[in-house]
Amino acid sequence: MRKILLTLLLSIFCFANEGNFPEDLENEFKPTNSVVFDPLSGYNRVMTSFNDSFYTYVLTPTAKGYAYVVPEVARTGINNFFTNLFFPIRFANNLLQFKFENAGKELGRFLVNTIWGFGGFMDQATNTLGMRIYREDFGQTLGYWGVGQGFHIVLPLLGPSNPRDIIGLAGDFLLSPTDRLGHNTLDYKIPQNIGQAIAIDSWYKVNEYSFNPNMYEIIKRDAIDLYPYLRDAYNQKREREINE
């Protein structure tokens, strides 16, 4: 259970656009001899403490209150809608990794859920047709093409990352319909300004976290030293995703 919760937590907070819920969790976070390059460990520990305070005193209470007010069926529909909305990220990165069959299946999922699932609020592709989701992001694409992860760094609010995944976030940012920097001519972007973009992404993250708002408290309770625990788990998770 702790491994599952840690996977969900890293999925929610380590990626700007969409969560990543692996189907196979049995092989997650096994002991490894790999060493994470961590020249910024002092800064990373401070930022982990900052994020810890934010998750504990802001995000978790907010998610619990949100879950109390918003029925689960509505939150599930919202999560389905955002998952469908982030289709361009998965589709493009499957193509960039030459996973053409998976890209085609992602396109099929998008069409089914958009048309039959009322704009994506219902996941008919999974629930009725058994079509799985193929999650890929630009950080994974860079790893597929041989780009090294570089040093470990903890980002404010987003948590563990590295230079490769930060560049990956920028690539996913361009494809995401919900992200925007200032006013531009990208007509597929839903928000009209950065304030709206932050509000939409924050809503998505709180909604996603609301399905298990106690996960961070459980992980923190079980971790002897929170910072290396999250660092090593993140590194193993990304290595596994890239090598799949």
UniProtKB/TrEMBL annotation:
It comes from the Bacteria. GO terms for biological process: intermembrane phospholipid transfer. Residues 1-16 form the signal peptide. Keywords: Signal. The keyword 4Fe-4S does not apply. One of its GO terms (cellular component) is membrane. It holds the Pfam family MlaA. The keyword Signal applies. InterPro entries: MlaA (IPR007428). Belongs to the MlaA family. PANTHER family: INTERMEMBRANE PHOSPHOLIPID TRANSPORT SYSTEM LIPOPROTEIN MLAA, LIPOPROTEIN VACJ-RELATED. This is ABC transporter. It comes from Aliarcobacter cryaerophilus. The lineage of its organism: Bacteria, Pseudomonadati, Campylobacterota, Epsilonproteobacteria, Campylobacterales.
